[in-house]
Write a structure and sequence with these properties.
heterodimer, A: 277 residues, alpha+beta, 8 helices, globular, B: 388 residues, alpha/beta, Quinone Oxidoreductase, Chain A, domain 1, Rossmann fold, 2 domains, 7-stranded mixed beta sheet, 6-stranded parallel beta sheet, 13 helices, binds nicotinamide-adenine-dinucleotide, binds zinc ion
């Protein structure tokens, strides 16, 4: 068990260290491969090493550590990164177009391939009221006018954060870009791009999100809202978008039975009692 | 309902838990009529697979009767008898469309966990840790079956449960292991492990035209079943496997080698002791005695097919030998959905009776005892079938 404890302590340290690294302005361009090597190599070893002990939480903590570490790479070099290539057709290239000025904020870019035509995906996304179906941190999005919408997102302790956004650029079937309007709790701008994938593989969907976490009292709230790693959040959102578009539903185990939920009389009597043997 | 829940290493208990319900439109709920314990369950039981949580319901080999269907399930109706494949697959993604069902992109709600360890995530699996989706398993009275319009295969009336239950995993797994060998006329196939997977691999290798199959294990009753299926047998505690195999193949080595043992391989060699010590010290995760031996014994340009499960990092892996001999490796979780109908046909036509390896028939309530018997190969146990 000593080995277990040691591994745990090390993990804790790793988390803290990488936690430091996630701060904006942290050293960038540290080889992704290098980070992966340590995340996977070290993480996996510790993870498996711990399998003899009590698992769940420990494993998750570990994965979390790797996640934070990876989050760090997402934060790198925001400033330069803003010259990103997604900007054909407007995008976020010009700082005056963006609610988050160039040189500030955090930028994340992620992509996924979805086995559906670009137009279909575009239409689904263009109705922003659909977004909470796959973006788990969103409570609701209401369209308030042409190109305008009101967003409500979940925040810790049952609270919520709200903002208004506008579509400021779009290209039918190809691209949508939006940004928050004056007075938002979190300044952010995002764009989504739909490109025909090669070899009949459907659509290559790319999302670019930039947000500016304000300091002060909202700082903590915002950090939680986007999770430790906005990059990870977007990867998962895109995964759910893909599930929804390809299969018509989002894979889930939420609400399923387990030994953790003790059966009450009504819960079991329904079927089990009537089931003929 | 009653369900077998995992609480820790070698600690599984039958508990009263809520009945499963439909959570998604493509779900169905099945009343389980037969369920089995798999060698893969032993890796959970022995604590080798991470991301398990106390209270997780185990079991991925099950069949039963449909009792409820989600709004989008039109191919099944209440009362249908079905066998459920252990990987959960959507049928729509890039991988499913290519028949790679266990690589399904859309069925693992915890894909991110696997992405951290493996780079990309495979399909969700029933009752096989949170990293594999965290789905409740089928060693229970009922189970929720996601993508019920893709996975479950309907069983014609008059076919006994025991004859079709193993379509859920081990029969297709043995079959895919043999298919991966791309058997040519005249081929010799060597199979490490004569557990259920190995035994089905042996039968399948013959079905696919192997000239000879050599079966390797240490348990006499398992070797006996292998011999009854037509294999030449080697007890690795009594003979040197490499010497025997080269002698049998005129110095060439088997054309393909199947590792139907996996990460808990047993052994007495220096390498095996080294593995045991290292895994006990948390310095390595998987014990790969059988796989190493398969690589060394395989003929030049041959195929090593690996249905045995590995989860993490291998040590002292003879990659130089594999490289120099130009071996082909084939492996992975079985794409069960791909084999269900063709293999069911074999059963319907009476060409194979998969129930030949059942040694123990027990009640679901006795599952904890059954795990112990199967793990320790007590009482000549080869396969346990549970009846809820
Ligand atoms: N790929 C898949 O989708 C899939 C599906 C089902 C099972 N599996 C895996 O297949 C493996 C076998 O499953 P099973 O149900 O037959 O398990 P099992 O435990 O009943 O059989 C394993 C056999 O291997 C033998 N063995 C152990 N060490 C050996 C060695 N060094 N040389 C030769 N034989 C050795 C054991 O004596 C035993 O008979 C497991 O790893 C299981 O997880 C994989
Ligand atoms: Zn199995
Ligand atoms: Zn799929």
């Amino acid at each position: 068990m000593a080995a277990n404890e040691e591994a745990l302590t090390n993990v804790g340290q790793a988390t803290e260290e990488t936690g430091e690294g996630t701060r904006m302005g942290a050293t960038v361009n540290v080889g992704q491969a290098e980070r992966w090597a340590s995340a996977i190599g070290g993480g996996a070893l510790a993870l498996y090493g711990l399998t003899r002990g009590s698992l769940g939480g420990i494993a998750l903590a570990l994965v979390g550590a790797a996640l934070v570490q990876r989050g760090a790479t997402g934060h790198c070099n925001l400033y330069d990164a803003m010259g990103y290539s997604s900007a054909e057709g407007g995008g976020l290239r010009n700082s005056e177009n963006v609610s988050v000025p160039a040189g500030r904020g955090i930028k994340v870019e992620k992509s996924v391939t979805i086995n559906r035509p670009p137009g279909e995906l575009y239409r689904f996304w263009r109705n922003f009221e659909n977004l909470p179906r796959f973006m788990n941190h969103l409570e609701s999005v209401r369209v308030t006018g042409e190109g305008r919408s009101h967003w409500v997102a979940k925040a810790p302790a049952g609270r919520s954060v709200e903002w208004d956004a506008e579509i400021y650029n779009e290209k039918e079937g190809e691209m949508i870009a939006w940004r928050t309007l004056e007075g938002a709790d979190v300044d952010s701008a995002g764009s989504v791009h739909f490109e025909q994938a090669a070899g009949g593989r459907g659509t290559f969907v790319r999302v670019v999100l930039k947000y500016d976490p304000p300091g002060g009292k909202l700082g903590a709230l915002v950090a939680r809202l986007f999770g430790e790693s906005p990059e990870q959040q977007i990867v998962e959102d895109l995964g759910r978008f893909k599930q929804l578009m390809e299969t018509g539903e989002v894979a889930t185990t939420e609400g399923q039975t387990s030994g953790r939920s003790v059966a009450t009389k009504e819960q079991t009597s329904g079927r089990s009692a009537s089931a003929g043997r | 309902m009653k369900a077998l829940c995992w609480y820790g290493k070698t600690d599984v208990r039958v508990e009263d838990v809520p009945d499963p319900k439909i959570l998604n439109p493509r779900d169905a709920v099945v009343r389980i009529t037969r369920t089995a314990i798999c060698g893969s369950d032993l890796h959970l039981y022995d604590g080798f697979i991470p991301t398990m949580q106390k209270g997780d319901i185990l079991g991925h080999e099950f069949m039963g009767e449909v009792v409820e269907t989600g709004a989008s399930v039109t191919n099944l109706k209440v009362g249908d008898r079905v066998v459920v494949p252990f990987p959960i697959a959507c049928g729509e993604c890039f991988f499913c469309r290519r028949g790679l069902f266990s690589a399904c992109d859309n069925s693992n709600p915890n894909a991110w966990m696997q992405e951290k360890l493996y780079g990309f995530s495979g399909a969700g699996l029933f009752g096989y840790s949170h990293m594999m989706g965290g789905y409740a398993g089928g060693q229970a009275e009922y189970a929720r079956v996601p993508f019920a319009d893709v996975g479950p295969v309907k069983i014609p009336d008059g076919l006994d449960d025991e004859k079709v239950l193993f379509l859920s995993d081990i029969f297709p797994t043995g079959y895919m292991a043999a298919e991966n060998c791309q058997i040519q006329p005249g081929d010799t196939v060597a199979v490490w492990g004569c557990g259920p997977v190995g035994l089905f691999a042996i039968k399948s290798a013959f079905l696919l035209g192997a000239e000879r199959v050599v079966a390797i294990d240490r348990f006499p009753e398992r070797l006996r079943l292998a011999a009854e299926s037509g294999a030449i047998t080697i007890n690795y505690t009594e003979a040197d496997v490499y010497d025997e195999l080269t002698a049998l193949t005129g110095g060439i080595g088997p054309d393909s080698c199947i590792d139907a043992v996996g990460l808990e391989a047993h052994g007495t060699s220096i390498g095996a002791i080294y593995d045991k010590v290292k895994t006990l010290m948390f310095l390595a995760t998987d014990r790969s005695t059988a796989l190493r031996e398969a690589i060394l014994c395989c003929r030049k340009g041959g195929t090593v097919s690996i249905p045995g499960v590995y989860g993490g990092l291998l040590d002292k892996f003879p990659f130089g030998a594999a490289f120099d001999k130009g071996l082909t490796f084939k492996m992975g979780q079985t794409h069960v959905q791909r084999y269900l109908r063709p293999l069911l046909e074999h059963v319907v036509r009476g060409e194979i009776d998969p129930s030949f390896l059942i040694t123990h028939r027990m009640r679901l309530e006795d599952a904890p005892e059954a795990y112990k018997i199967f793990r320790d190969k007590q009482d000549d146990c080869i396969k346990v079938v549970l009846k809820p």
